[in-house]
Design a protein that fits this description.
By secondary structure, the chain is α/β, with parallel strands linked by helices. The protein is 40% helix and 15% strand. A seven-stranded mixed beta sheet has the order 10-8-9-1-3-2-18, covered by helices on one side. α2 (81-90) packs across α3 (100-111) and α16 packs parallel to α17 (493-501). It is globular.
């Protein structure tokens, strides 16, 4: 795992380029503290910081092919690098290292852009062709690794994290009001957007080519597929197929030259990953968990049951409200986007604990709910889509089973819920039927902003532009939206990758293997009606996990919200309590924001609604980001690592260009 950064800047004085790229890499050194390097050519500079996982001694970056025509900076892991290396060797490609980075480079030289769909991994990459002058940026198909880019004058900048842009001369951050509204409404940026003006991210499965003459082209090398040919065997055969596909996925992700741990939440998904890891690992598996002092959020009993059953070496941290308040600024600094809940902060603390335990790589259960229809969102969609075809008794039975873990879905609220589902049984936002209930909370948060234009317009345009979207079923559309928005934009990033890499820990997601996603699509709703949570997964691992792991209702991972800040009163809360500070947020409506803050601070916690709680956390995280990025105030940046940057590889081709005849 690594981080990368670079720029194309024809007018930047040559003497400044080494200092600028070194500073950019210093801003993201938490992603790769083991070593760093950079490559300079005429007007083009790129570099990488490295967290050594595979090819510890031979994987230094930037890396070149033997002719030094092609140069690569690679952020990620290629899980099928062994198989691809053998195939490339048979085709005559030369190898000098045992690093997966070299496999990526040789695959690019052999197949060009056609190599990207062959990759089973989590990655973002930059490849420079010194002969043509082209620079290529690409990102994995599910968005596990980030890659941002921006124009600044005549310069083109790119990096694994936006904070690296601070190092480029004259660059400044400013919120984009419309993008901020979209984030508030959707809980996440759209796939190619950020909340900052002029900064975009490479979309999932995207490849951007910047030609030597400045022309650019952005393409998608692999479209997201949530449909697949139906599995033709029996239910038992389907369960066996799913189990074997997952086993292979975990086996691939255990490939490493360092020990691999597992995040164990206590739920079904992480328990399955832990079970398979214990079957396949040559040593006792180490598992790591978050526990909460507040019982309504805590899953420690389930975590201990699974760890004891599977015989893992288990370690957990206990997170208090004070811990969340104390570390909120630091976690926001790494997230780089406003957040609607605090659940990412405990993950920030957990990755620090994992790093301190000497582990660089962990497996986790992200992607299981999206692939195997685990969210209540999918059951809600099924219910609303069939509402007019059901009798009243069946409607009530299905409502009762949607959220058994939530008190506000209990019998006392059944009449209200019935009216709510009846109201949303017909689509009003074109193409977004499955998510309309959720988006109502987002509409409330958008009221915090001065710009209140339709926040869903860009998403509606995005689904209209996808050629296969209209033909999907309501549940498949819900899956597509989850993959494209909340999974990549929040769960894999704000709550996942950014929190792990903040402390130099790489996360790997077995449920986001392309073969697993295809297997899930082939069996979903073939052997059940969709109202039993992940029925096929439970069948696949029946008898191998504790019975409680298979029968207990899903408990979504949550953490305390606005009440934390109200109780702890951290110093940065003054950003909201001070009317003068609040008015410095140009994009925020200070009147509505002030009323919300006042209500949060003066109202008993149990009388604060979910949408109000989420809006408050959005507002606070936006205020913190404003201090960190827009105003560039160090005291609000938490405690970023101050470790020095170890430059191992520096290459300067600006004055010693290879001739075209010496390249191939």
């Amino acid at each position: 795992m690594c981080g990368l950064a670079g720029f194309i800047a024809p007018t930047l004085p040559a003497a400044e380029a080494p200092g600028v790229i070194t500073s950019m890499l210093t801003h993201i050194r938490h992603r790769g503290p083991d070593e760093a390097g950079y490559y300079l050519d005429d007007g083009v500079t790129m570099g990488a910081v490295r967290l050594s996982i595979v090819g510890l001694a031979t994987g230094a970056q930037p890396m070149a092919d033997p002719t030094e025509r092609y140069w690569i900076c690679f952020n990620g892991e290629l899980y099928n690098h062994i198989e691809l290396r053998e195939e490339l060797r048979r085709l005559g490609r030369p190898f000098r290292t045992d690093s997966d980075t070299e496999v990526v480079l040789q695959a690019w030289i052999q197949w060009g852009e056609a190599c990207l769909p062959r990759f089973n991994g989590a990655f973002a990459l930059a490849i420079r062709d010194a002969l043509s002058g082209d620079l290529v940026l690409a990102r994995d198909r599910y968005g596990k690794r980030p890659l941002f880019h921006a124009d600044h004058g005549d310069a083109f900048l790119f990096a694994s994290e936006m904070k690296a842009f601070r190092a480029f001369p004259g660059f400044g951050f400013a919120f984009d009001p419309r993008e901020l509204a979209s984030v508030y409404a959707l809980w996440t940026p759209l796939p190619d957007r950020t909340p900052f003006r002029g900064i975009r991210q490479l979309p999932v499965g995207g490849v951007l080519t910047v030609r030597g003459d400045g022309r650019r082209s952005l393409r998608t090398y692999e479209e997201l597929r949530v449909d697949a040919p139906a599995f033709t065997g029996s239910a038992a055969e389907a369960a066996a197929h799913v189990r074997e596909t997952l086993r292979t996925s975990v086996e691939l992700r255990l490939r490493s030259d360092v020990e691999v741990g597992v995040y164990l939440s206590g739920g079904l998904d992480s328990s399955i990953v832990t079970k398979l890891a214990t079957d396949l690992s040559p040593h006792q598996v180490r598992t790591f968990s978050v526990q909460f002092e507040e019982a309504s959020f805590d899953e420690s009993d389930s975590q201990r049951v699974v760890a004891d059953h599977l015989g893992t070496r288990h370690s957990a941290i206990s997170v208090t409200g004070a811990d969340i308040a104390e570390n909120f600024e630091s976690a926001v600094y790494h997230a780089e986007v406003p957040a609607f809940r605090t659940a990412f902060v405990p993950m920030y603390l957990l990755s620090r604990h994992v790093r301190d335990a000497g582990i660089k790589t962990v497996l986790s259960g992200e992607g299981a709910d999206e692939a195997f229809l685990g969210y209540s969102l999918f059951r809600e969609t099924l219910l609303r889509a069939s509402w007019d075809d059901l009798d009243e008794d069946e409607r009530q039975r299905r409502i009762a089973g949607l959220h058994p873990e939530l008190s506000h879905f209990g019998p006392a609220h059944r009449k209200h819920l019935t009216g709510l589902f009846r109201q949303f049984a017909t689509e009003s936002l074109p193409g977004l039927f499955s998510h309309e209930l959720r988006y109502q909370n987002g509409r409330f948060a958008v009221r915090l902003l001065k710009d209140r234009e339709e926040p869903f317009a860009a998403l509606i345009a995005m689904v209209r532009a996808d050629p296969g979207y209209a033909g999907l079923s309501p549940v498949q559309k819900a899956q597509w939206l989850e993959y494209k928005t909340l999974l990549a934009g929040y769960l894999l990033s704000t709550q996942g990758e950014r929190m792990s890499l903040a402390h130099s820990v790489e996360n790997r997601c077995p449920f986001l293997d392309p073969a697993v996603v295809r297997a899930a699509a082939s069996v979903n709703l073939r052997f059940d009606d969709g109202f039993e949570e992940k029925a096929i997964l439970k069948k696949a691992f029946h008898g191998e996990l504790p019975e409680s792991s298979l029968t207990r209702p899903k408990q979504p991972y949550r953490a305390p919200g606005a009440a934390v800040f109200k109780k702890q009163r951290p110093e940065y809360l003054d950003l909201l309590l001070s009317d003068a500070e609040l008015r410095k947020l140009d994009c925020v409506d200070p009147v509505f924001a002030g009323k919300l803050v006042n209500k949060i601070m003066t109202t008993p916690d149990e009388q604060i609604s979910t949408k109000e709680d989420q809006a408050f956390v959005y507002l606070l995280s936006t205020a913190v980001l404003h201090q960190q990025f827009v105003l560039n105030r160090e005291r609000h940046m938490g405690t970023p690592s101050d470790a020095g940057l170890t430059l191992r590889t520096t290459v300067d081709h600006r004055r010693a260009r290879l001739s075209a005849g010496g390249m191939r």
